[in-house]
Design goal:
Layout lengths: L12 H13 L7 E6 L2 H14 L4 E5 L6 H10 L11 E5 L3 H19 L3 E5 L12 H20 L3 E6 L11 H10 L3 E4 L6 E3 L2
Parallel strand pairs: 1-5, 1-6, 2-3, 2-4, 4-5
Antiparallel strand pairs: 6-7
Helix pairs in contact: 1-2, 2-3, 4-5
């Protein structure tokens, strides 16, 4: 009589995508900034966060583009077999609507928030989108952008897993400020580029 093959639990496509994204881009090497970029990047990043959150790891998020959608995290938790409510209790969200507010959050408040919550992951949504205000002179915008990146690099060097998330550039292609988005894509390591929403992920090398 033949023995039965051990039962292998089925993994839904949604859960498989969550696991893959979490493994690839929520564990950057020390000192590195990871990134999700392209159409649907915000949704994918939110879903990927469900894995560490369900596992009991708190996360601090900074939302610069009004992109934080709690429904996506709850939906991802349910895909992983959870209730859809536990993950949201472990994430702290702060919002910035201007580049100067973003600079203040990243340089002065994010570090203490990580320490207070015990979080090891910091996710920044829509960083370039806070630089779209044409009333901020370009030279000042460049200074603030450099200050934001310096703050994030300090956190990464100290052991925080920093993840940048952005969709398509929020500026006209060819404009000066479009370079902010391109720079983030260039420095992110690892970096996941989405060709279009719903497609397989492509890892930038």
């Amino acid at each position: 009589m033949k023995g039965r093959a051990p039962h292998t639990p089925l993994v839904s496509p949604a859960a498989a995508d969550i696991e893959r994204a979490s493994a690839l881009c929520l564990r950057p090497a020390p000192g590195k900034l990871a990134g999700f970029f392209g159409a649907g990047a915000h949704r994918l990043a939110l879903r990927a966060l469900a894995r560490p959150l369900v596992a009991g790891e708190p996360v601090v998020a900074v939302d610069g583009g009004n992109r934080f959608d709690p429904y996506e995290i709850g939906k991802a938790e349910r895909a992983l077999g959870g209730s859809g409510r536990v993950a949201l209790s472990r994430i702290l969200v702060s919002r910035a609507f201007t580049c100067h507010q973003m600079e203040a959050l990243l340089s002065r408040r994010l570090g203490p928030a990580l320490d207070h919550s015990g979080a090891g992951i910091a996710v920044v949504f829509g960083l370039p989108e806070t630089f779209a205000d044409a009333d901020v002179p370009y030279a000042e915008a460049c200074r603030v952008f450099r200050s934001c990146l310096s703050a994030l690099r300090r956190l990464a060097a100290g052991g925080t897993r920093v993840v940048l998330v952005g969709s398509d550039p929020p500026f006209p292609e060819g404009g000066d400020r479009a370079g902010f988005f391109r720079h983030l894509v260039r420095i992110a390591d690892p970096c996941l580029l989405l060709r279009r929403e719903g497609t397989l992920l492509q890892r930038k090398t």
